Amino acid sequence: MLRKSQKEAIVICCRKQLYEHAEKNLLKLLNQFPWLCDPVLYKSQFIRDIESKATIGANRINIRWMENSGFCDGLIQNGDYIGLTDKLPETCQSTPDIIFLQLDELSMTNSCYFYKSKAHGSILNRFIDAIEKIY
Fold first, then answer.
1. Which element (helix H / strand E) includes 37?
2. Which of 76, 79, 83, 111 is 20 to 30 Å from 93 at the Cα level?
């Protein structure tokens, strides 16, 4: 296991206009706009639980797997996307119309566990190994 994130560590990153369009309702926000997720979060039970709470009627939740955080930041700043992340994007932190919302309203008790891939030749594993060697 690489790290564990409690629900408080997972935030929604979006433009203020999207949150206001959703009438400052977290469930409406999650239901109306596509989510951008880190690959580690994408298949997690935590995201599945949020998805089940945010599904309203026949509306399907649109979740996208985003590996490139720079591209993801651009979509959040300029498009109708929301990001679910355990780390605040540096480029978004300095933008005044981007807000970060805690998931408190959903009363979730899940945790996310970040594991190293079992695939021996994984690019992620080689990257993690390189970082571990630096420290």
1. strand 35-37
2. 111
Q: Average pLDDT of 41-62? A: 83
Q: Give residue 7's pLDDT.
A: 47
Cα angle 46, 128, 70 (rounded to 5 degrees) comes to 65
Distance CA 115, CA 132 (A): 14
Does the pLDDT of residue 89 top 50, yes or no?
yes
Q: Give the position of tokens 């998931």.
A: 103
Mean pLDDT of 26-39: 90
> Are the C-beta atoms of 110 and 5 separated by less than 8 Å?
no
Report the candidate in 13, 6, 7 with the shortest Cα–Cα distance to residue 33: 13
Token readout for 112 is 């996310």
Sheet holding 98-102, edge to edge: 63-65, 35-37, 82-85, 11-15, 98-102
d(CA 73, CA 71): 5
